[in-house]
Amino acid sequence: MLEVKGITVRYSGLPVLREVSIKVDEGRTVGVVGANGAGKSTLLKAIMGSVKVTSGEINFQGQRIDKLATEQIVRRGIIYVPEGRRLFGPLSVEENLLLGAFTVEREADKQKNLDYVYEMFPRLAERRTQAVGSMSGGEQQMAAIGRGLMSTPKLLMLDEPSLGLAPLLVSEVFETVRRLQEEGDTTVLMVEQNVLEALELSDWAYILQTGEIRSQGPAQEVLASDEVRKAFLGM
Ligand SMILES: Nc1ncnc2c1ncn2[C@@H]1O[C@H](COP(=O)(O)OP(=O)(O)O)[C@@H](O)[C@H]1O
Ligand SMILES: [Mg+2]
Questions:
Q1: Can you give the pTM of this predicted structure?
Q2: CB atoms < 10 A from the CB of 33, how many?
Q3: pLDDT at 164 over 90
Q4: What is the pLDDT of residues 172-189, one digit of tens each?
Q5: I need a labelling partner for 185 at 20 to 30 A (CA). Which of 13, 102, 115, 116 fits?
Q6: Can you list the positions of beta strands (E) in the chain?
Q7: What residues have a C-beta under 5 A from ligand 2, the ion?
Q8: From the CB of 40, is ligand 1 less than 6 Å away?
Q9: 88 by DSSP, 3-state: which?
Q10: Contact of 164 with 124, CB cutoff 8 Å
Q11: In this structure, are residues 30 and 202 in contact, taking their beta carbons and an 8 Å threshold?
């Protein structure tokens, strides 16, 4: 479904991604893990067209997208849930969710998507009128993912959904990602520093280190590898 082929991204001349290649097949959850500063957010921004790719190409559903504007990429069905969530705090949960439906034209479809999000995240349904800024970090992350789902994306990209959350909430957020995959059949590309929990629910994993893909494989194998156990899990 998504194929990133040897992309290089530079910030003021310095490469922060070097010939990075990844693939995401339909219906799968792919995890890209790496330390702070490895280039994870830059990779997702490159796919979204919000940073310029200096070489390589990006294909989505068989078509090249790396020269398109972000809005066109969104309209093709790729949604980016940014690090730090970026919700509108004073607005209610439902108002925030509806902002995610800006590409949906028919009111009936908006309602259908809203019903789907509330079914996936019952907690959001209970709190639909609450100001999003007054909710817990985990609930806000669910609202951010829910907002992304409001446009029925073909590919949902999550940037460190566990960032800044207490351990219990981290598990809860990852559990919702698992449900999206199992019940909703959503294709997910997730970047994370939380290697253990992210890889536990991914099908395929890539390790990104200082802008380069160091290794890849079935997530369970990568998780069990010496490289990951030493570098990320301190074993
Ligand atoms: N807008 C920018 N201008 C210059 N350097 C940047 C910019 N954004 C990120 N960087 C640098 O690029 C590298 C990768 O950043 P980022 O993709 O945010 O990493 P990660 O998400 O893995 O923490 C880091 O060294 C970071 O300091
Ligand atoms: Mg980041």
A1: 0.93
A2: 27
A3: no
A4: 889 888 988 888 778 999
A5: 102
A6: 2-11, 14-24, 29-33, 55-60, 63-64, 78-81, 155-159, 187-192, 204-209, 212-218
A7: 40-41, 83
A8: yes
A9: coil
A10: no
A11: yes
